[in-house]
């Protein structure tokens, strides 16, 4: 299973290509539109979750360990906590 935002981007562009197929019948277009609506609904949730994770990481970079206990997705022991955060100047953040 592909779980990266770049994979989501590939899925969205593939769906756009299917919608652009001029050989589709009206029934096939209706099916692809319904499929596209479902994909977009899920994609919106994935992007929203990624945005939330990014904001949490920014808070830890800015405020350090003081906020990590309020952010379960990056709390010590979580998988995300294993990934070192890099500050805007390229140095490893100390959380």
Topology:
Blueprint: H1 5-20, H2 26-63
Helix pairs in contact: 1-2
How many DSSP helices? 2
CA-to-CA gap between the ends? 31 Å
From the alpha-carbon coordinates, what is the Rg to the nearest angstrom? 19 Å
Uncertain residue ranges: none
Q: Could you tell me the mean pLDDT?
A: 82
Describe the structure.
The chain has helices at residues 5-20, 26-63. The longest helix has 38 residues, at 26-63. It has 95 residues and is mostly helical. The chain has two helices and no strands. It has a domain at 5-63.
In short:
This protein is mainly α. It has helices spanning 5-20, 26-63.
Properties at a glance:
95 residues; mainly alpha; 2 helices
């Amino acid at each position: 299973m592909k779980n990266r935002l770049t994979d989501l981007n590939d899925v969205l562009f593939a769906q756009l290509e299917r919608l652009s197929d001029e050989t589709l019948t009206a029934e096939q277009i209706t099916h692809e539109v319904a499929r596209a609506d479902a994909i977009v609904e899920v994609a919106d949730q994935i992007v929203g979750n990624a945005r939330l994770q990014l904001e949490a990481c920014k808070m830890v970079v800015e405020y350090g360990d003081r906020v990590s206990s309020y952010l379960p997705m990056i709390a010590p022991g979580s998988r995300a906590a294993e990934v070192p955060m890099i500050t805007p100047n390229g140095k490893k953040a100390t959380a």
